[in-house]
Amino acid sequence: MKEWFQLACQPSVVKRALKYAAVVGLILIGINHGAAILAGQITRAGLLQMLLTLMVPYVVSTLSSVGAMREKRGKS
């Protein structure tokens, strides 16, 4: 587990995950919350959901990157 977190915290992994989170997360937010945003009806719950929406592509990208790195090392 320690190795996994070390790989997940590498700057290249974090930078890649942040890029994906920004692009994919904003698209998902637009799809799921666009009407509320345009109507100016953002609630605290909606804002929390948007923040969680940004986390999804970050986590997926990190899991994928770490998995690929471990597989390349022969430690899947």
Structure description:
- This protein has 76 residues and is mainly α.
- The protein has a domain of 49 residues.
- It is built from 3 helices and no strands.
- It is elongated and about 50 Å long.
- The model has no long low-confidence stretch (mean pLDDT 94).
Keywords summarizing the entry:
3 helices; 76 residues; 0% strand; mainly alpha
SSE arrangement:
Blueprint: H1 2-8, H2 11-39, H3 44-73
Helix pairs in contact: 2-3
Strand element count: 0
N- to C-terminal separation? 12 Å
Radius of gyration: 16 Å
The helix/strand class is: mainly alpha
In short:
By secondary structure, the chain is mainly alpha-helical.
